[in-house]
Every structure is written in C-alpha cells, then in structure tokens.
UniProtKB/TrEMBL annotation:
Species for this entry: Litoreibacter albidus
Coiled coil: none
Keyword Transferase: no
Signal sequence residues: 1-20
Signal recorded as keyword: yes
InterPro entries in alphabetical order: DSBA-like_thioredoxin_dom, ScsC_N, Thioredoxin-like_sf, Thioredoxin_CS, Thioredoxin_domain
Pfam families, sorted: DSBA (PF01323), ScsC_N (PF18312)
Lineage of origin: Bacteria, Pseudomonadati, Pseudomonadota, Alphaproteobacteria, Rhodobacterales
Residue spans crossing the bilayer: none
Protein name, entry field: Protein-disulfide isomerase
Domain Thioredoxin: 23-239
CDD domains for this protein: DsbA_Com1_like
Gene Ontology terms, MF aspect: disulfide oxidoreductase activity; isomerase activity
UniProt entry keywords in alphabetical sequence: Disulfide bond, Isomerase, Oxidoreductase, Redox-active center, Signal
Domain of life the protein comes from: Bacteria
Length: 241
C-alpha cells in the first residue's frame, strides 16, 4: 500500500509541474517528491484512500461473482438443513460453529428474526473450524436429521453452557429422547461428510476466515450482526424485488 501511495503521490506531484520524470535525476525526483509531500501531506492519504476503495470494490465484485456461481449450492443443497419457512420468499444462509462464542451470541438474534418473519427461509451450514470437538458436534447435529431432530438438537447445542464435545453432545441427544447408538452410526453417513466438505469449499471460495458468516441475498456479511441489521438486510432484499 505504501509503495502504491508513493507512486500515486509521485504522479500527482509531477502533474503539478512542467518537468517530466525523464527530465529529473533520481535524487532530484526523490527530493521533489519528499518536498511536495511535506508541503501537501494529504497527497499520501488520498492515494491510500484510493487504493482502499479499489481493493474494497474488487473484493465486492469477486464476492458477487462467487455468490452467483455458487447460488444453488448455497441455497438449495439437499444436505443443508433449512429452518423457518421452507417456501419463504427470502433465503438467508448462515455458516457457524457450535463452539464459536460469537455464533452463540448471535443465535438469539437469528431466532428473533425467524420469530418475527414467517416468510423467511434460513439455510444452516455447519462449518466446524474450532477443533475436533466442533467437528464431532457438527457431525452429530447433521446425523440427527435421520431422527427428525435437527432443529431441536441445533437449538440445544447453541444454548448449551460450556463447550460442545462428545460428552455434552450425547447428553443433549439423550435429553431429547434420541437413540444415541443410531446417532453415532449416522455420523458416518456420506451425506454428513459431504455437507461439511461443501461448507469448506464454499467458505474458501468466498474467502471467509471466521464464524459466524451470513449471506443475505447478494450480500456477504462476515461476523456477528444484530437483529436490527438482519431485519434491514431482509427488507433490502424484498424492496429490490
């Protein structure tokens, strides 16, 4: 960034004088640039701001392209659980880890959003990135679909005090009246591994590096957000038609 700023500053400096870069020696050019920057320090800031704007736009364009290319995998993957209204007019995708503190903090806002909007469809993508305990919890949650318990299990894990690990996962399964032997067997089902693998591929393509992360229509929203912001993003999607 500094190199770009200096190059931009040089271009701006030379544009203010009749002399060209070819007419200056290396020392003269350096002295000229340094003197101009000392007299006009805002030149460097303007150059840095220009670079930042270009980088942000490039990242936004790249994210849009990736979202468009992966729309079906993100929103219509049969291996991804859906909560809320399965026929809702707005689809939101959430990537999460059961041992992510920010995910747990955001959980109540997500639940409030679902409770306040009967026409919202939420795709839940298990993305266990915080160790083997998280992987175990994600596999168990996905395996619970075979017993029709995914949403209950997901909610219980998100509200669990302490880490999600083998002991807490099996305890919660028992509390929900699940067959834990079947649950453990179903954790090895190919669709469970396929879901997690797809999550890894999607997040790599989207250049995500932490949980939670949300997709609201064409907007990629990394990090925890609050209920009001979620509502506003959903409203933007509906307003856009």
């Amino acid at each position: 960034m500094i190199r770009f700023a200096m190059s931009s500053a040089l271009a701006l400096c030379l544009s203010t004088t009749a002399m060209s870069a070819q007419e200056m020696s290396k020392d003269e050019m350096r002295d000229f640039v340094l003197e101009t920057i000392r007299d006009n320090p805002e030149i460097v800031m303007e150059a840095i701001q220009t670079l930042q704007a270009r980088q942000e736009q490039s990242q936004a364009d790249q994210a849009q392209a990736v979202l468009s290319a992966n729309r079906t995998a993100l929103e219509q993957d049969p291996n991804a659980p859906v909560v809320g209204n399965p026929d809702g007019d707005v689809t939101v995708v959430e990537f999460f880890d059961y041992n992510c503190g920010y995910c747990r903090r955001t959980y109540s806002d997500v639940q409030n959003l679902l409770g306040s909007d009967s026409n919202l469809r939420l795709v839940l993508r298990e993305w266990p990135i915080l160790g083997e305990e998280s992987v175990y919890a994600a596999r168990a949650a996905l395996a619970s679909r075979a017993q029709g318990k995914y949403e209950e299990f997901h909610n219980a894990l998100m509200q669990n005090n302490g880490r999600a690990n083998e002991a807490s996962v099996l305890r919660i399964a028992k509390e929900l009246g699940m067959d834990t032997d079947q649950l453990v067997r179903d954790m090895d089902a190919p669709e469970v591994a396929a879901h997690i693998q797809t999550s890894m591929q999607l997040t790599q393509a989207l250049n995500l590096n932490g949980t939670p992360a949300f997709i609201f229509g064409d907007q990629l929203v990394p990090g925890a957000i609050e209920f009001e912001q979620m509502q506003a993003l959903v409203a933007e999607i509906r307003d856009a038609g």
